[in-house]
Design a protein that fits this description.
- It is globular, with a radius of gyration of 31 Å.
- The protein is mainly alpha-helical.
- The chain has a two-stranded antiparallel ribbon with strand order 1-2.
- The longest helix is centred in the N-terminal third of the chain and has 25 residues.
- 56% of the residues lie in helices and 4% in strands.
- 25% of the residues are buried.
- The chain contains 16 helices and 2 strands.
Length: 340
């Protein structure tokens, strides 16, 4: 019989020891030099995509907005800066895309585009409408069936029943604004707002496709490149909307606590619409019922145009198949042997 017969126990013992050494050696080499499957834990990320056939899917603004909020780096920065957990981020992102749809039809409404194209005209028109509030009773009493038009804020009907003085001021404001815009173009200035006279105070203009009126103060420390003047950029608007909502959370909690209003469990994020759009008096009076709020219904309808999902996301190299892993291991073993 050969050297590995039952009577020859020494060679068999040596073979067993040698096998153990090989296993230990290979395990040590792989641990130090090879990329193997890492089972986590991995971070969670929220992915937002417009649903096929929805209004959002036809809007470039909506696609950029959703892509920005889905970006892993943006999520990491916002979560770390504002100390958000995964669930909070998903809910806030969902509310943000809903607001995008409600405020500007995902950036596609004509009214929004006109406001962004002629921001200097907004304070002029607002001043005109404010001067007409008292005069409105003159025709509201006569045309009571048209109350819904006034409540809708139809500027054409305000203009129709305005007096000559108010109309003259409106014409003057629009003419001066148009003149300055022409001057800016001739001078090669991209931003007409820089040269407009103090008459056009645009600080209170709502800007961007989510119509942000008050820019979130803390956000600029983490994202200094974003400011109210460049919120027409969909990516900037997405981040700023999240910042606004997060910074409004403590205000909502304080307002509810001060007035003894108990926010239903799990509905805190939804109640942020009272801070974003109002009316806040419903929180103060304790009469807020978010599901009956008209604006929230619009936001919820807008949010339904998107698929929103949060899942654990492994790094790309965790998806190596067995063949790729074997090739990688073989290459690293050869390199290790050469170094020896």
């Amino acid at each position: 019989m050969g050297g590995f017969s039952e009577g020859n126990k020494v060679p068999r013992l040596l073979l067993f020891v040698f096998s153990l050494f090989c296993v230990h050696f290979n395990a040590s080499v792989m641990a130090q030099n090879l990329k193997v499957y890492d089972l986590g834990p991995y971070p969670y990320y929220t992915e937002i995509k417009p649903k096929a056939g929805s209004g959002a899917s036809k809007s470039d603004t909506a696609k950029i907005f959703a892509k920005t909020l889905s970006d892993h780096e943006v999520q990491d920065r916002l979560k770390k800066y504002y100390k958000l957990d995964n669930k909070q981020y998903e809910e806030l992102a969902g509310l943000s895309v809903g607001i995008l749809a409600a405020e500007s039809e995902n950036g596609e409404s004509k009214k929004y585009k006109l406001k962004e194209r002629y921001p200097w005209a907004v304070p002029t028109l607002k001043k005109f409408r404010d001067s007409e509030i008292d005069l409105s009773d003159r025709w509201r009493s006569k045309y009571r069936k048209l109350d819904w038009i006034y409540e809708k804020g139809d500027i054409l009907h305000d203009y129709r029943y305005a007096d000559k003085k108010a109309k003259k001021e409106l014409h003057k404001g629009l003419a001066v604004g148009g003149l300055y815009e022409s001057i800016a173009k001739i001078a090669g200035r991209d931003n007409v707002e820089e040269i407009l006279p103090i008459l056009f105070d645009m600080k209170m203009n709502s800007r961007g496709p989510t119509q942000i009126k008050y820019f979130p103060e803390k956000l600029q420390k983490e994202f200094p490149e974003i400011e109210k003047a460049n919120l027409s950029n969909a990516s900037n608007a997405a981040i700023a909307t999240m910042g606004y909502l997060v910074e409004a959370l403590p205000q909502l909690r304080a307002l509810a606590q001060e007035n003894g209003f108990e926010i239903p469990p799990g509905r805190e994020i939804d109640h942020l619409i009272y801070m974003y759009k109002g009316p806040r008096r419903e929180i103060i009076k304790g009469t807020a019922t978010v599901d009956d709020n008209i604006y929230f219904k619009q936001v919820r309808a807008g949010r339904s145009e998107y698929n929103i999902e949060t899942a654990m996301v492994p790094p790309a190299d965790a998806y190596m198949d067995e063949r790729e892993l074997a090739r990688s291991n073989s290459k690293n073993l050869e390199q290790h042997s050469a170094n020896e």
